[in-house]
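REQUEST ID: PR-0412
SUBMITTED BY: lab tech R.K.
PRIORITY: routine
TASK: structure prediction, single protein chain
INPUT:
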Amino acid sequence: MARAPLLQLSDLTLGFGGDPLISGLDLTIQPGDRLALVGRNGSGKSTLMKIMAGLVEPDGGARALGPGVTVGYMEQEPDFTGFATLGDWAAQALPPEEQYRLELAAEGLGFDPALPADTASGGERRRAALARLLAEDPALMLLDEPTNHLDIAAITWLEDRLRQGRAAYLIISHDRAFLNALSRAVLWLDRGQMRRLDKGFAHFEDWRETVWAAEDEARHKLDRKIKAEARWAVEGISARRKRNQGRVRALAALRAERAGQIRRQGTAALALDAGQASGKRVIEAQGISKAFDGQVILSDFSLRVLRGDRVALVGPNGAGKTTLLKLLTGETAPDSGTVTLGTGLEMAVFDQNRARLKLDASLWENLTLDPEMRVSGQSDQVMVRGQPRHVVGYLKDFLFDEAQARAPVRALSGGERARLMLARIMARQSNLLVLDEPTNDLDIETLDLLQDLLGSYDGTVLMVSHDRDFIDRIATTTLMMQGAGRVTAYAGGWSDMLAQQPEAATPAPKAARPAARKGPLPTDPAPKPANKSANKSTVALSFTERHRLDSLPAEIDRLTAEIAKLETLLADPDLYSREPVKFARATEALSQRQQALAAAEEEWLTLAERAEG
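STATUS: complete
OUTPUT:
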């Protein structure tokens, strides 16, 4: 029997005073759907998600939820008014017996629920919004750029949490590795229309190129037909023209169809000019150390960066990546040791907080008032890599229209602010690029262009990023900041770093025996025989079984942690008399999780024994 859909949108239309942003859109989300929502910046993805959440009313069409369906939306800018801490805000909809869910999510995402809400950073607030969504566990989760401001450990935890959960979800993200790991279908919002691919994001780009090729071919055929009909209208015999008015009307209809076609938005005209080459040695750090308020950020660290190197800084939030970036560029002085910058350096900086943008000033003013871009005596010209350009023309290179040029930066989306930052740093010649979280909020197409551009850039690149795919494509050296002042350098990108780490320093493989558990541990499977028959037995698992074997340890760890929280709650001797309903619910939840844990461990043993032969 077919299950009722969770959410249906029918003939949806939305506009903001001009051409419709969304027109005639139909969408159905079923239980168990794992969807990626993709499209260009400004195509309406976030607005569509808010319509799904019931936060924005469309101009036309209908939104319908299935019976008893709950929808959770990860707010980008939540309102914390009236709440003392992040935890108070995130737990407001949770019954007391399920508060442990928030604690588990907070631990996995790496944020402190006790942080005061009025002083928390934007990243901490967004992690609180994500933790609240996960703790509430709705039937349908709507996640808008959930990986922004998360470190790689938290992103990996979130991947496992979403993969193991029962909820359907829809994700907007620029993180290819994240989308590849989680999506089973792709929704493509393109020029107000929705297309669906019932395959994961890994197949999206090939499919998109096929769609565009078919669209170009259809447009070419229509142009040829219009040209032929127009020639007939000019050269046709007057006596026959009266009898062929239908053909004249058909020509008018063809022209109207062609005029009504919405052109694909072009790609941003990104360009970098390394200018004069720097010296061969760009940065020489010798024995540098740094600490803040007694916390060691860096201890006796040395590094040499040569011209053309691409150095990525990775590690947990708070490990000091941005501090190390500032030390290496001379913005911050080390407590001990020396940093020597090479000769002929021209530096351009892309900061993660977009602090160099004046939010209340217009895009025009942000460019023309920049001392490095100002053209003497001209209020409508900017200097772009040594040549004067009209400010509107240059903004159009980055997909801004003339109306936006006079609008305040505050009105721009996150992706549009990122493009404006790129416009600023790409206007100047530079042979050292410093990129602090450059991928946040960029759409996939712009991110592709940036990657290609950095690949052919003649200068040197220092970057902080949590985007594993971006690091793999760009970095020639990866610095892993492990905390307590320890930094290890690896050749290559993220995947290369994992391959080079000694076995003792890397996390246990996902298929390894779960360690976090109360009670007797399951017996280890027999060692793998070193013969050919063992190789045959290793591949005896199906793809689904292999995936299940990989995911079970994390599920066992999660159930074990939840059981521990519930046991701590039930250890209160006065709980039953004080709150009998809470006691009953916690007891039922504990029994369910204990049964689930036993079943998961038994399943893991069965699959592991088969895999090991």
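NOTES: The CA atoms of residues 327 and 333 lie 6 Å apart.
REVIEWED BY: pending
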